[in-house]
Amino acid sequence: MKEEPWPRLVVFDLDFTLWDCGGTWCDCLRPPFKKSGPRVLDANNGHIRIYPDVEILLEILPQRGCQLGIASRTEQPGWARNLLSLLGLAQKFPYQAIYPSDKKRHFRQLRDESRIDYEDMLFFDDERRNIDSVGSLGVVPFHVDRGVTEANFSRGLQAWRRSKRSPSSS
Fold first, then answer.
1. Which of 95, 137, 138, 164 lies 20 to 30 angstroms, CA to CA, from 35?
2. Which of 13, 42, 125, 126 is an active site residue?
3. Is 125 a catalytic residue?
């Protein structure tokens, strides 16, 4: 039996997709950020946490041949990078587009750096406007409400696989 294909690049938004910053965006937090045991906190002791299924997904995807990327429209890219580092995630993402801009610009950068076609990318984000914007490029986007989970990742992967089987994908 032939194994199902996997995307060559899986891209994630940050806020409300990979992590929760206490119900707000990372650019609304108050630095400095610090690691306190296993927790990452801001200056107000607000807890920044990775959603529960993220770590296992970030372990499995490279084993399946998927490269990992980030596309975040944050107004505070330095803060986002600091949080990625403190959470132990920075090194897992060789492709990072983290700056205020339309996500189409992020994906042009990711395509140019990775040399991976849009059609071979799968993207997870909590904002519909980003889903619509990136989908117009040919990337398969998948909307998540409260973080990426194994279940919604699986649904996104199935949507990507369906797109590869459709006649319009050739």
1. 95
2. 13
3. no
Which residues sit opposite 19 in a β-bridge?
Answer: 15, 50
C-beta atoms surrounding 23 within 10 Å: 8
13 given a catalytic annotation: yes
Handedness of CA 158, 64, 68, 28 (dihedral sign): positive
What's the average model confidence in pLDDT over 61-74? 96
Dump pLDDT digits (tens) for 143-156: 998 899 999 999 99
CA atoms within 13 A on the CB side of 153: 21
How far, in Å, CA of 139 to CA of 130, rounded?
Answer: 11
List the beta strands (DSSP E) in 107-166.
Answer: 121-125, 140-143
Tokens of 109: 């950068």
The CA-based angle 95-107-33, given to 5 degrees, is 50
Inter-residue contact 89 to 18 (CB < 8 Å): yes
